[in-house]
């Protein structure tokens, strides 16, 4: 696997919290804003403001598959949203069609790229009066958002910080086996998979899956944590390191994962086989050569990859960085391989405020 040196080696020991005034969840002023996607699907934006008025522009945070916007506000003492508010940003969180806070639909990345992200960007720009915005996008929020950008559908987005995967999904060997061999069998039995089957049965298949996970993932006492590893990757666990999560966050994830449609897994299977994202629904707005042709965006991209990611290998972001740099050598695209981190602990690790969130802030400032 290709590796890339990180400009951010593991930091020395530090106190759990920095000194000085801080924003916390108690300081958040939250407004949930209804949003209609281009095809009529109901979405929401969560507008979060702190005790002080923002003095920087808007930043849009986009979650992954089968979670929700609250992904960015875990029960850690310091969250990415807190740091962004302290830094003066006008923070918006998008619940796109993959959100568990919305009615489940059999979505694809193409649907989100064409209908969800352009609508969200235009709403935020209209609401704030800003000329452009920046985005921090994670996992399938990242793949679909990057699809929209390279298709020229997000011309007023000037900076994208993407975590875990963007245009070139590369997965561990066992994950490839599951998505190529197991997922097609499950498509005939269920319209979706759900880590919430850990505590909420949905027919006999959910009980069988729960029993299989119980037998094959003995790594902790949180069955949702173990179901997440079965659903999304390879490892024990697959999406984070237990040493990076505090007890409150490890308990909190129990309510933060639910349905992911088999339509998504089918598209990801085709993309893994192709070596880059491919379209699976007819959307003339999207080019047929996603991840191959020249990107139709002037946005600067920063690619983050946890060195220990067992959902999407760091090679995913290495390839996407190389792709953008090859086509846009003077754009200033950057790559950060983050030691000691995996997939989601980049967002809600106990020390993410000191290890990974500063990288996000640095790239938003560039």
Automatic annotation (TrEMBL):
**Skewed-composition ranges (Pro residues):** 8-21
Indicate the segments annotated as coiled coil, or none if absent.
none
Q: Which Gene3D superfamilies match?
A: alpha/beta hydrolase
Acetylation found in the keyword field: no
UniProt keyword Kinase present: no
Cofactor dependence is on: FAD
- Kindly indicate where the leader peptide sits in this chain: none
GO MF: hydrolase activity
Q: Which domain of life is it from?
A: Bacteria
Enumerate the residue ranges of region (Disordered).
1-25
Its keywords, alphabetically, are: FAD, Flavoprotein, Hydrolase, Oxidoreductase
Instruction: Identify its protein family.
Output: Belongs to the GMC oxidoreductase family.
Q: What is this protein called?
A: Alpha/beta hydrolase
């Amino acid at each position: 696997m290709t590796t890339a040196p990180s400009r951010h080696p593991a930091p020395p020991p530090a106190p759990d919290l920095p000194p000085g005034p801080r924003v916390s969840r108690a300081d958040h002023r939250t407004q949930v804003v209804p949003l209609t996607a281009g095809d009529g699907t109901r979405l929401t934006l969560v507008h979060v403001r702190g005790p002080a008025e923002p003095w920087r522009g808007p930043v849009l945070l986009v979650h992954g598959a089968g979670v929700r916007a609250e992904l960015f506000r875990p029960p850690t003492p310091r969250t990415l949203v807190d740091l962004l508010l302290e830094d003066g940003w006008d923070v918006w969180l998008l619940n796109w069609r993959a959100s568990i806070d919305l009615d489940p639909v059999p979505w694809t990345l193409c649907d989100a790229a064409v209908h969800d992200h352009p609508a969200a960007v235009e709403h935020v720009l209209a609401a704030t009066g800003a000329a452009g915005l920046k985005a921090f996008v994670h996992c399938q929020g990242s793949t679909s958002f990057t699809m929209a950008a390279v298709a020229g559908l997000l011309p007023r987005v000037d900076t994208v910080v993407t975590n875990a995967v963007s245009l070139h999904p590369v997965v561990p060997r066992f994950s490839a086996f599951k998505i190529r061999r197991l997922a097609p069998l499950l498509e005939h039995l269920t319209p979706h998979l759900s880590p919430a089957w850990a505590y909420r049965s949905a027919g006999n298949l959910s009980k069988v899956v729960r029993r299989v996970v119980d037998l094959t993932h003995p790594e902790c006492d949180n069955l949702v944590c173990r179901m997440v590893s079965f659903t999304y990757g390879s490892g024990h666990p697959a999406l984070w390191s237990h040493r990076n999560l505090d007890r409150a966050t490890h308990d909190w994830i129990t309510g933060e994962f639910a349905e992911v449609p088999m339509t998504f897994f089918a598209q990801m299977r085709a993309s893994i086989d192709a070596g880059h994202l491919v379209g699976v629904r007819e959307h003339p707005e999207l080019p047929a050569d996603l991840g191959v042709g020249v990107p139709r965006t002037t946005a600067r991209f920063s690619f983050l990859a946890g060195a220990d990611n067992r959902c999407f290998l760091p090679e995913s972001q290495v390839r996407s960085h190389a792709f953008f740099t090859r086509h846009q050598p003077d754009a200033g695209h950057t790559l950060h391989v983050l030691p000691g981190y995996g997939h989601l602990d980049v967002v809600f690790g106990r020390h993410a405020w000191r290890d990974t969130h500063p990288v996000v802030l640095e790239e938003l400032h560039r």
